[in-house]
Specification:
This protein folds into two domains: about 40 residues, no CATH class; about 70 residues, no CATH class. It has six helices and no strands. It is globular and about 45 Å long.
């Protein structure tokens, strides 16, 4: 329970075989994003393609960045939305621990 399971464990193999995709069931919202540190929010914005829409990330306060990312993820999760290639990254983005097998993406607090 204390380590990230990135190996071919039974859980990861079954989840992969079933094609479990967390973004089919979960969208990053303000509640989740608030739990991230500022540097993790910036990484999320870059990895998800949101930074291309948001502009200069350093100009946002943490609360503003959380709100902007929550809006971006809600928009990309909307089935009626027309998405370009960058927005499609937002539709697929999830923390590495929600992939199977898990991936290390957001840096843990040292």
């Amino acid at each position: 329970m204390d380590t990230l399971d990135t190996d071919q464990s039974l859980f990861n193999v079954v989840a992969s075989d079933l094609a479990v995709a967390m973004r089919n069931w979960w969208t990053p919202d303000a509640g989740f994003l608030t739990l991230l540190r500022r540097d993790q929010l910036e990484t999320t914005a870059i990895e998800s393609g949101a930074s291309l829409r948001l502009g200069k990330l350093k100009s946002y306060g943490k609360r503003e960045l959380v709100d902007a990312l929550a809006q971006f993820f809600a928009r990309t999760a909307d089935p009626a939305a027309v998405l370009d290639e960058d927005d499609k990254k937002g539709l697929a983005w999830a923390p590495g621990t929600m992939f199977f097998p898990a991936q290390r993406t957001l840096k843990a607090k040292e």
